[in-house]
Recover the amino acids of this structure.
């Protein structure tokens, strides 16, 4: 198998606040005050949506550039909801200020449904855990 990403998380003295090192970047995650955190960073599901939105924006920008389409300013609004059975539902609303016609939008929506992160989130991944030293 080929490694495509790495991340490390380390706890802090501040209850739920954790430091994340992902790739070459550092960020923090925390729970909102309502859940006992201090709200000092995005919560885990915020990061989940951020990952999906980043992949969507980058993939659609790459696709539009290859086609010679002007997306203009691209924006995606994502919302996650949990139903009574514990299933997660994510809705993506895509916006672009560029002059796109209906056929171009239809194609962009098709591409959005097939972005790498979308496919993994939809189809699942094998996740294993083991004890470290």
């Amino acid at each position: 198998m080929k490694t495509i990403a790495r991340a490390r998380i380390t706890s802090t003295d501040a209850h739920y606040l954790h430091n994340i090192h992902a790739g070459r970047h550092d960020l923090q995650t925390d729970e909102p005050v309502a859940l006992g955190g201090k709200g000092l960073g995005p919560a885990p599901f915020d990061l989940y949506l951020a990952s999906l939105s980043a992949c969507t924006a980058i993939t659609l920008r790459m696709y539009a550039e290859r086609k010679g389409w002007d997306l203009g300013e691209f924006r995606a609004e994502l919302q996650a909801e949990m139903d009574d059975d514990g299933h997660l539902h994510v809705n993506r609303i895509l916006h672009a200020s560029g002059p796109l016609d209906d056929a171009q939008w239809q194609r962009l929506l098709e591409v959005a449904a097939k972005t790498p992160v979308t496919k993994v989130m939809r189809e699942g991944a094998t996740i294993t855990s083991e004890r470290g030293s």
User: Anything to note?
Assistant: Strands lie at 7-11, 18-22, 25-29, 74-82, 88-96. The chain has a mean pLDDT of 96. Residues 18 and 127 are 21 Å apart (CA to CA).
